[in-house]
Design goal:
mainly alpha; 196 residues
């Protein structure tokens, strides 16, 4: 059985970076823009706009604003309502840009991108939103900057590791982080049900 490691790496890179959109939308977009601009990754013809200087400036500015906004109490919870659908869109776009379509059919490419990339980004974003919501209720928002710092670190390190280390390891790290988030939410929910 022949395994196409280039294809497997491209799929893992697309899913890992898409999943990072669940932590912060614009950091992975910025990472792909810089990588494409530096010719570290080759994007399809219809996605070349991602690797332009204007895209780098836009994603960089948006990333700084997004990071800063998550440190403002209660604004972070409002952002989560908008961030979930945006994370799905960003994850889908990144997956479509990075995951090659075996038969070059755009419909197949975008369907796979939506399921793999958008699904990974949306699941992570919803998990982190639930965690922040429980933190807001439990700590009146004072614990939210800790969560925001963890999400920022996960978005930056996940985006970097997706390019530096084997991309399969980056995808596994994202799955581990997802599992930790679900376990934390489950623990918080069970703690609320216990009698005082």
């Amino acid at each position: 059985m022949n395994i196409d490691y280039h294809l497997l790496s491209a799929i893992a890179l697309g899913i890992a970076l898409s999943a990072c959109c669940g932590f912060r939308i614009f950091i992975p977009m910025l990472a792909v823009a810089i990588a494409s601009y530096s010719h570290l990754v080759i994007l399809p013809q219809d996605m070349h706009w991602l690797g332009t200087l204007p895209a780098i400036i836009c994603f960089g500015t948006a990333a700084v604003v997004e990071i800063a906004a998550y440190y403002l109490p209660f604004l972070d919870n409002l952002l989560d309502m908008v961030a979930t659908p945006l994370a799905i869109v960003a994850g889908t776009v990144l997956a479509a840009a990075l995951i090659p379509s075996p038969d070059k059919e755009p419909l197949v490419r975008w369907a796979v991108a939506l399921i793999a990339g958008g699904g990974a980004a949306g699941t992570l974003q919803m998990s982190s939103s639930l965690l922040r919501l429980f933190s807001t209720k439990a700590t009146l928002g004072t614990g939210n900057p800790v969560i925001a710092t963890g999400e920022n670190a996960a978005a930056v390190s996940g985006s970097i590791f997706s390019f530096i280390v084997p991309v399969i390891v980056a995808a596994i790290l994202i799955v581990v982080v997802l599992w930790i988030l679900f376990a934390t939410v489950k623990r918080l929910r069970s703690g609320k049900r216990e009698p005082i």
